[in-house]
Write a structure and sequence with these properties.
- Helices cover about 35% and strands about 15% of the residues.
- The longest helix has 20 residues.
- It contains 9 helices and 9 strands.
- It is globular.
- It has a single domain, classed as Aminopeptidase.
């Protein structure tokens, strides 16, 4: 029988309260908000204005993330963590012939040194941009997509700083994922010196909303070496961890292999796992807000992501040298 750690935590609070009461002490302090929840709440707040690439809200989110990476103790790979790049975007997405503008985007890249690094590094990533606001000023807060994965990224960073990994770990908050995976494409094509040899990539995109506690892990079909890792993680996960959504199919909605930032890594021959939920009622809607997230599930997903990252670190060379099931293809 699997013992739910969340249930254990819920038991601890009333037991402590009874003990304090027996001593004549009243416990009036509210429970501290877990840091991943704080990160999720702040990154999806209205003042981030939907974090559209190139916007002031996006810049505020980036400033917050830089502060958090520094607070955790992650070493910058670039100056102030920033890997800037530009791309062209149509001023009217409905008109392919419309005038175009140059947009500046910024990946944030940090490094945690391994205790006994091998020839490969592990990348953990999540995109922090979203789709901004509509013409009426409605904010698409993007709590699940993808303040949640970014909060998960920070949690993995904190866990590895507290208990260092065996291998070097690169942490990337990608920009410009929406509409083209541009941040991930740029990083794969412009890897920093000394960290070019990537053995595995873990991506988190939409891990904060599930009314059934179901989280999917994509990538084991392509890289069967990862199946035992995922099976072991599922056995201890406080949520339901499923494989799937990675076999070739005529319906692109059922194959998530190239649909988020892990795609360019896979196209470059790098093994990956992607953690995410199925599309839901809040996906790319103004209802994708912190208040609508299922927080117990989110905390379980974050715990699972940390566990998967640790297991991948422990077998990084094995993962890096294992064959994939089919030849890699160019990212869409």
């Amino acid at each position: 029988m699997h013992f739910d750690r969340r249930f254990s935590a819920l038991l601890a609070a009333p037991v402590l309260a009874l003990s304090l009461a027996a001593c004549g002490v009243q416990d009036t302090a509210a429970p501290a908000e877990p840091q991943p929840v704080t990160d999720l709440r702040i990154l999806s707040a209205d003042d981030m204005e939907g974090r559209l690439v190139g916007s002031e809200g996006n810049a505020r989110a980036r400033e917050y993330l830089i502060g958090r990476l520094s607070e955790i103790g992650v070493t910058p790979v670039f100056e102030n963590y920033e890997q800037a790049f530009t791309f062209q975007r149509s001023l009217d997405f409905r008109d392919p012939d419309a005038e175009r503008e140059t947009v500046r985007a910024v990946n944030l890249v940090g490094h945690i040194a391994g205790t006994n690094p091998g020839e490969h590094v592990m990348v953990v990533g999540a995109h922090y941009d979203h789709v901004g606001m509509d013409e009426d000023g409605n904010i698409f807060n993007g709590a699940d997509d993808n303040a949640s994965g970014t909060a998960g990224l920070l949690a993995v960073a904190a866990a590895f700083m507290e208990n260092p990994p065996q291998n070097d770990v690169i942490l990337i908050a990608f920009d410009a994922e929406e509409g083209g995976l541009r941040g991930a494409r740029h990083y794969v094509a412009n890897r920093p010196e000394g960290f070019e040899n990537i053995g595995f990539m873990l991506n988190m995109d939409m891990i904060a909303f599930s009314e059934t506690d179901d989280l999917y892990v994509v990538g084991t079909w392509h890289y069967p070496v990862l199946l035992d890792l995922v099976t072991a993680a599922a056995e201890v996960s406080p949520i339901n961890l499923h494989t799937g959504y990675d076999e070739p199919t005529d319906d692109p909605r059922n194959d998530w292999t190239m649909l988020s930032d892990h795609g360019p890594f896979h196209a470059a021959g790098i093994p990956f796992l992607y953690l995410g939920v199925e599309d839901h009622e809040h996906y790319h809607q103004i209802t994708d807000t912190f208040e609508n997230m299922t927080i117990p599930f989110f905390l379980g997903a974050v715990e699972t992501a940390v566990d998967v990252a640790r297991r991948a670190d422990a077998m990084l060379d094995v993962i890096a040298n294992a064959p994939s099931r089919q030849p890699e293809t160019d990212a869409k």
